[in-house]
Write a structure and sequence with these properties.
Layout (H helix, E strand, L loop, with lengths): L5 H21 L3 E11 L4 E11 L7 H5 L2 H12 L2 H4 L18 H19 L5 H16 L3 E8 L3 E4 L4 E3 L2 E5 L2 H9 L12 E3 L4 E9 L8 H14 L8 E6 L7 E4 L11 E4 L3 H14 L5 H13 L5 H16 L5 H9 L3 H24 L10 H21 L5 H13 L1
Parallel strand pairs: 4-11
Antiparallel strand pairs: 1-2, 2-7, 3-8, 3-9, 5-6, 6-8, 9-10
Length: 425
């Protein structure tokens, strides 16, 4: 609940109006043209077009005059009275990083008043409109008086398509189309939306994203990548398809005065097969996500490091490199290499024929891996095809999914012991 009074609104309104009047009197408005991205989501295409914009006088040009305005001084006093420094988590430190005693908060509070005014100018220009001001004021107060800041994380899913539905949600996550504003922001930050394009136009191969809303401090943001990594990992464990992500756009849910994009890596995920998710996948994905999410903070090392190698396989450009990563992922998962051809069939094989097929595939994998490690390449007898790599990837996928199911009730070492016992039987 926002604890504000009519007096607060009046004081902020008069401060904003006085700043607008002053910079309008002292400054000069300029217009300019800029190449800005235009988005056609229906055609999945973007291009650059000249756009006319207005440049308002910058507050810093007239800072000395603005900070002396009586309405601004009253507003600063009100903000101190309402304990804005604490609510905004403003901490002033010395050169040694220690908090300053009796700090001067005024410059920081004036900056917040300027932010409100700048936001108003950006949306409505110099003309004061009471109703529009109230909307902005209420939004700002919602932010100030909330105990935390809610951030929207948006990460484009590369090489990914939603089929027969517009979006789907699971717990705190939602998969949906990027908005035009988000696409423009990503392009302005230099993100290539999963493909190479010229400086003036391009196809929108990537239009879907995963969204997550998190609670964050108002002054600092903890690392964000693991939120998206976990979700993409479960997508990969569900079914085949080269899905990945390269960037995370984050912005406040309310009081959107800033936004940023962080880039994780520069891998090219645009390669076959495309990852296609449809309504038939929702139930199985939800179940797998809940199993994964319940355990992720207490994964045993074998599970944790095995998943790391599995995800690394998606970043490889060469087929052999991907196969080696998958071989290591399987060896780490089962905690063995020389008995892998026995453990895997016993663990996921459902019939004699399937177990024989799994045994032959793993034997071939181990021979190829050994040849690569010792001579740098497989023998001519063991040709590595994409189909074979895909079959090994699917073996890993089935194995890890079964481990996750069993780990809901058993410990990792107990599962491994039961695999050994099944061989004796």
């Amino acid at each position: 609940m926002v604890l504000k009074s009519n007096e607060d609104e009046i004081i902020f309104r008069e401060a904003l109006k006085s700043i607008l009047e002053t910079i309008k009197r002292l400054g000069k408005i300029q217009t300019y043209s800029i190449l800005a991205p235009k988005i056609d989501l229906a055609k999945r295409f973007w291009y650059l077009e000249l756009e006319r914009r207005i440049a308002y006088p910058h507050f810093l040009e007239f800072e000395n005059e603005l900070v002396k305005l009586e309405p601004v001084r009253r507003c600063v006093s009100l903000m101190l009275e309402r304990d804005f420094p604490k609510r905004l988590e403003i901490i002033i430190t010395d050169e040694n990083g220690k908090p300053v005693e009796n700090p001067n908060y005024e410059p920081f509070l004036i900056a917040e008043i300027f932010t409100l005014t700048c936001r108003y100018l950006e949306l409505y220009g110099f003309e004061f409109k009471e109703e529009k001001f109230k909307e902005l004021f209420n939004e700002m107060m919602d932010y100030v008086y909330s105990p935390t800041r809610e951030l929207i994380l948006v990460s484009p899913l590369e090489n990914f398509e939603l089929e027969d539905m517009e979006e789907f949600s699971v717990e705190e996550y939602k998969v949906r189309k990027l908005t035009e504003w988000e696409i423009k922001s990503l392009i302005n930050f230099g993100y290539r939306l999963g493909f190479i394009f010229t400086s003036e136009h391009g196809n929108l191969e990537t239009i879907f994203c995963v969204e997550r809303i998190i609670k964050s401090s108002k002054v600092s943001i903890s690392p964000l990548q693991h939120y998206i990594e976990d979700f993409v990992t479960v997508l990969r464990l569900l079914k085949s398809g080269i899905v990945g992500f390269n960037a995370i756009l984050h912005y406040p849910k309310i009081w959107r005065t800033s936004f940023e994009t962080s880039f994780s890596h520069r891998f090219q995920f645009r390669q076959p097969p495309k990852y296609v998710f449809n309504s038939k996948d929702v139930q199985s994905f939800t179940q797998l996500w809940r199993e994964y999410n319940k355990l992720k903070n207490q994964f045993p090392n074998n599970i944790k490091f095995s998943l790391r190698w599995f995800n690394k396989a998606y970043e490889e450009r060469e087929t052999l490199d991907k196969l080696v990563d998958l071989a290591i992922a399987l060896e780490v998962l089962f905690g063995t290499s020389n008995k892998l051809d026995l453990y895997v069939p016993s663990f996921i094989g459902s019939s004699k024929e399937e177990k024989l097929k799994l045994n032959k595939d793993i034997e071939k994998l181990l021979r190829i891996r050994g040849a690569i490690v010792h001579s740098g390449h497989p023998s001519r007898r063991h040709k590595v095809t994409p189909d074979f790599v895909n079959s090994i990837e699917d073996i890993y996928r089935k194995s890890m999914r079964k481990f996750l199911r069993l780990l809901q009730d058993l410990k990792y070492n107990d599962i491994k012991r039961s695999i050994k016992d099944s061989l004796l039987d």
